[in-house]
Amino acid sequence: MEKSIETQASSVDLAVEKALVELGVSKDKVDVEVVSKGGLFSKAKVRVTVKDSVADKMAEFFNGTLSRMGPGFFPTALGVILALLGCCLSLRALLFSGYGDGSLEGVNWGVLGFILGSVAVFAVSLLELGVLRVYNVIHESFQ
Q1: Which of 40, 63, 93, 108 is most exposed, with minimal Cβ within 10 Å?
Q2: Dihedral sign, CA of 106, 110, 113, 115?
């Protein structure tokens, strides 16, 4: 989605600078179209359009929308559905657990701690061991 504005000033350069300040971008990230150069009694008018970056296009392509799904849309939707299903099953198990005689089995805290600890170690090591580092390198190279 391109963002474009038109500005007027006493010269073309001043109109471009005014547009850049309003858009909050640098000159290398925009296309400048001179609508009128102005004259003795008229102002210069320019149309400044922000270029779409490759990273923005990649993000839009990966996720997509409901009407135009990208390759990452289905795995994301599936992950959300599975997380909701897991929450529902966990809640059901907590509320209606027990054996036929109404007794509950004790929680094995060692196993629970090991599982949660391994997930935490994985989350912390993502940046240092690869997945997020590769993403950051790719993301920074396209800006």
Answers
A1: 40
A2: negative
* Residue 50 · residue 3 · CB < 8 Å: yes
CA distance 110 to 89: 22
How does the average pLDDT of the chain come out, rounded? 80
On the 0-12 / 13-18 / 19+ scale of CB atoms within 10 A, 67 is exposed
Inter-residue contact 50 to 5 (CB < 8 Å): no
